[in-house]
Amino acid sequence: MTRPDEDPDRLYTLTGGRSRPDSDAFDLVTLVVSECDPSPGMQSEHVAILEICRSPAAVVEIAAELKLPVGITTILLSDLLLAGRITVRHPRTNPGAQWNSLPDSTTLEKVLVGLRNL
């Protein structure tokens, strides 16, 4: 199902018909930073991404700013990553931890005590 403001032909053209990014480096919270200025002849969406990412921006923020689906945005970001025009990093406090791992029991106990004190 497409939203009323999405033109499937436009989205197809933006991605060159691709339905998946060429890189698996992106999720919703991946931070993206521009590594260069836009160059003449670049696709307007690529230019917009480079402008948005002058300071670190999450993939979901970029998609919202461009008013494009996240999937389309990740394809465009993948193009820029492969061209060396952006860098990406995942915002993790502990590089070895899984994003969905549970905190240790001591932390959970402290939260429980804090909630009981409210």
How many beta strands in the DSSP annotation? 3
Quaternary: single chain
Q: How is the main sheet built?
A: 3 strands, antiparallel
Please identify the structural class as seen in this structure: mainly alpha
pLDDT below 50 for ≥5 consecutive residues: which ranges? Answer: none
- The proportion of residues in beta strands is 5-15%
Number of helices: 5
* Mean of all residue-level pLDDT scores: 83
- Distance between termini? 45 Å
User: Looking at the structure, what is the overall shape?
Assistant: elongated
Largest beta sheet: what is the strand line-up? 2-1-3
Radius of gyration: 18 Å
Helix content: 40-55%
Order of helices and strands: HEHEHHEH
Explain this structure to me?
The chain has 118 residues and is mostly helical. The protein has helices spanning 8-15, 44-52, 59-66, 70-82, 105-117, and strands at 31-34, 57-58, 86-89. A three-stranded antiparallel sheet has the order 2-1-3.
Give a quick rundown of the structure.
The protein has 118 residues and is mainly alpha-helical. It has helices at 8-15, 44-52, 59-66, 70-82, 105-117, and strands at 31-34, 57-58, 86-89.
Features:
118 residues; mainly alpha; 3-stranded antiparallel sheet
List the helices and strands and how they pair.
Layout: H1 8-15, E1 31-34, H2 44-52, E2 57-58, H3 59-66, H4 70-82, E3 86-89, H5 105-117
Antiparallel strand pairs: 1-2, 1-3
Helix pairs in contact: 3-4
